[in-house]
Amino acid sequence: MDLTHEVSNGLLVIRPKGRIDSDTAADFERRCAALIAKGPAKTIVDFSQVAYISSAGLRALLVAAKQAKSLGGALTLCALNGGVRQVMSVSGFDTILGAHAGVSEAAAALARFPLERNRSSDEESR
Questions:
Q1: How big is the CA angle at 27 (ends 25 and 33), to the nearest 5 degrees?
Q2: What 3-state class would DSSP assign to 93?
């Protein structure tokens, strides 16, 4: 599994490529964790280049989503194809995290989520 990323308009876009399975899930989880920790916490995972995801990959994705949320952001998915779409649908991840046609649609969905960390900071300063 290969992975690239970019930060654009206050969003982190992670682009894995290949298979996310028991052999690659730990690396995927570690790399996502490092990227999300650097920020921004609003994260899109673009699955356009992912051919397969196993339960180990789903677990890694859930860990990444929880981390983004704990940092005041959110994580959503886009460009699900074939078997990956089916796995996300059967597992409910497409509903839990949101599944969008492409990066621009995922970005629009995340734009509706205010950063929780900022709201907490505002409340503390009152």
A1: 100
A2: helix
